[in-house]
Amino acid sequence: MNEELDLTKIREKITQLDQDLLTLFAQRRSLTLNVAKSKAHQIRPVRDQQREQELLIRLIKQGKSLGLDAHYVTSIFQTIIEDSVLNQQAYLQTLANPSIEMPTVSVAFLGDKGSYSYLASHRYFSRRAEKIIEFGCQSFAEIMTQVESGHVDYGMLPIENTSSGSINEVYDLLQHTNLSIVGEITQPIEHCLLTAVNTRLDKIKTIYAHGQPFTQCSNFLDKQSNIRIEYCESTADAMAQAYELQSDEVAVIGSEEGGKLYQLHALEKSIANQSENHSRFILVARKAVDVAEQIPAKTAIILATGQKPGALVECLVVLKDKGINMCKLESRPIQGRPWEEMFYIDVEANVKSGALQEAIAEITPQTNFIKILGCYPIEHISPTSIPSSALKD
Fold first, then answer.
1. What is the pLDDT of residues 277-303, one digit of tens each?
2. Which of 20, 106, 110, 167 could in theory staple to 133 by disulfide, Cβ–Cβ 3.0 to 4.6 A?
3. Fold for domain 19-97+381-391?
């Protein structure tokens, strides 16, 4: 009995400490927003990676003196730094684009609640809006139409995955839209085998999923025998099917987080071919945004060079000579024009920068068509590097 009382007191102390930590995290976040406000009137980058590195090294040393593992301290504070950077960027973007500051936004995405597009939408706007009006769609084309028509403010579209590569249908749709890319987010894709009832893997006879998860989990699926694959329009549709059937012979591929919205539980976790599986999403809107100069930016360009030998290479050389890093190159056929291709290029530069303006001016005469699809903040925050010696005990 005494042991139970002691355990209760220990848990009460842990609960109080957790609450104290949350209060301190909130106070720290508030202070970092004050840092952003001070940078708003100065053209200083949001990130100071040398200072971040010095901060982490100091914290690691202090942590060691308190008996804390260096990797534990690093993991916690890298997450805190990422949150700080993203919040500062969101604040500066609001200053640069006052019209985008809205308490409520409407977003179209593939599927319904629980889909990866749904999760990406909520994660993206968690820093930017108090309320999200959700608009689930059955196709990428429908998402574009809903935004183009003004029925919703934004559309969330998956553009590429680290396992299955580029999503060609989205690239093809970008050829024929006047929408602008205004944001991006990289969403961790943690595929699980989900079921509505308690069961065993050897009892599963049917698996529901969207086509992309099937591709990304092919190694796991190849090891299963006598299982029928049922394709669905979205991961959310697949989850809804499993919930409705309530069968011990049915499973669905999706995220554990999304599955909870349908009262599904994970029978098998981490079933993707690659352990590091991420999807990159782009956010589209009817109006382009300005990117604050303090924020690292990407610019998406679409161009066609025709069937001129070496024309694409000449365009890329211009970017190289201007010191502009190209982080994505994708080619897609032009409908109705056999053997001709449209090229999609992402560069790490603000479209307002002198270097990129000069590059576009030089590239344009070498193309049959060129268009800026959008300039937007780089959302991926790379972890602050730390010397390996600092992590050694």
1. 888 999 999 999 999 888 899 999 999
2. 106
3. Chorismate Mutase Domain, subunit A (1.20.59)
Q: Which CATH class is domain 104-189+278-285?
A: alpha beta
CA angle 97, 369, 353 (to 5 degrees): 40
Query: What is the token pair recorded at 282?
Result: 């782009």
Q: What is the pLDDT of residue 247?
A: 94
Question: Among 121, 123, 184, which residue's Cα sits nearest to residue 153?
Answer: 121
Cα–chain center distance at 217 = 20
pTM above 0.90, yes or no: no
pLDDT at 2 over 70: no
What are the two backbone dihedrals, phi and then psi, of residue 350, each rounded to the nearest 5 degrees?
Answer: -80, 135
Pairing between β-strand 297-304 and β-strand 250-255 as defined by DSSP bridges: unpaired
Q: For residues 58 and 65, is the Cβ–Cβ distance under 8 A?
A: no
Nearest to 132 by CA among 110, 157, 152, 158: 152
HSE, side-chain direction, 13 A CA sphere, residue 214: 16
- Report the distance separating Cα 275 and Cα 282, nearest Å: 23
Query: Around 325, how many Cα atoms within 13 Å sit in the side-chain half-sphere?
Result: 5
Average pLDDT of the residues of the chain: 89
Q: Which CATH architecture has domain 297-377?
A: 2-Layer Sandwich (3.30)
Alpha carbon separation from 115 to 143, 164, 167, 264 (Å, rounded): 14, 17, 16, 13
Residue extents of the structural domains in the chain: 19-97+381-391, 104-189+278-285, 191-268, 297-377
**Fold match, 19-97+381-391 / 297-377:** no
Residue that has been written with the tokens 């056929």 in this structure: 333
Write the class of the CATH domain 191-268. alpha beta
- Residue 366 near residue 374, CB atoms below 8 Å: no
pLDDT at 36: 83
